[in-house]
Amino acid sequence: EFFITHATPADKAIYLNKILIHRDWSESGGDSFIMLITVTYLISRVIFGIQAIVYTIAGLNLIKKYNKRVANFYSNLTGKKMVWLELLTITFVFTAAASIILNILGRSFFVHNHWLLIPSVLFSALFFTIGLLGNKQNYTISDLVLEENESEEPQGKPDNHSILKENLLLLMDNELLFLDPNLRINTLSKKLFTNRTYLSNLINTEFNMSFSDFVNRYRVNYAKKLMNEDSEMNYSMNYFAEKSGFGSVSSFIRAFKQFEKITAGKYYQSTVKKAG
Q1: d(Cα 29, Cα 153) in Å, to the nearest integer?
Q2: Residue 125: helix, strand or coil by DSSP?
Q3: Which residue, among 108, 14, 47, has the nearest Cα to 4 in the 3D structure?
Q4: What's the average model confidence in pLDDT over 124-135?
């Protein structure tokens, strides 16, 4: 912008018409000022591309860390994971890539081919998608931080690793806490008189899964039990999802497929056939 402001009318005309519109780089060869403007323009495009790549990598890493943090605090992740932000980041990448490609093609490409509306429609659709995805997110990182801070942590030295594991399994089997769709890890830590972070680390290392997956494993097993017991009643998946402690039928279907490698519907159909 600085160079354009201080350029002569003739230089502006060459830059706008020959370089920006027609991409005729040869026009910059005879004038050092035009060449300087052109090089500055090209460098800015390269920097923009690098920024887009760095933002994407950094953004996806932060989202991954947040999702892991959420999965180790809540058993029901419906509406809490930043799936929308992942899509938002990918949308940003497409927007940046489209911008770079359109800049390389130049304005003359669209003018001469009567495709002038394509860039406008493309960017309008991408920005609309960005706004729509952002508007759909009701749960944010500040909500997680607030709820974590409100959770009281028991004081004192954590229990022995093997004893805590045994007590955790007994608690889950005897009290069926997983049937509560709003179960959080601090509920378990309070009942076990231990530290929430210590319990989370135990679940991660001992069972090689997040707190959410740990609880959903119990829920899926309980759902299988119900399906085998009620195979003659022909219940819906909503029924089994609700009775097993899932927050939604979609999370139930996803978790069932994750652990059993078969859809809940097909599994239930097989139990009905066996009963028949």
Answers
A1: 69
A2: helix
A3: 14
A4: 69
CA nearest neighbour of 147 among 139, 158, 157, 155: 139
Amino acid at 167: N
Q: Are 138 and 178 in contact (CB under 8 A)?
A: no
Angle between helices 196-206 and 161-175 (to 10 degrees): 90
Pull the structure tokens for residue 136: 């759909």
47 token code pair: 């920097």
Burial readout 197-217 (b: 16 or more C-beta within 10 A, e: otherwise): ebbbebbbeeeebbbbbbbbb
Digit-coded pLDDT (tens) for 162-207? 889 999 999 999 999 999 999 999 999 989 988 888 899 999 999 9
Which whole number is the average pLDDT over 140-169?
70
How far out from the chain centre does Cα 151 lie? 25
Of the CA atoms within 13 Å of residue 276, those in its CB half-sphere come to 8
Question: What b/e sequence results for 231-251 when a residue is b if at least 16 CB atoms lie within 10 Å of its CB, and e otherwise?
Answer: beeeeebeebbbbbbbbbbeb
> What distance in Å separates the CA atoms of residue 53 and residue 207, rounded to the nearest whole number?
35
Alpha helices in the chain (DSSP H): 2-6, 9-13, 32-71, 83-105, 107-112, 117-136, 141-150, 161-175, 185-192, 196-206, 211-229, 237-243, 249-260, 264-275
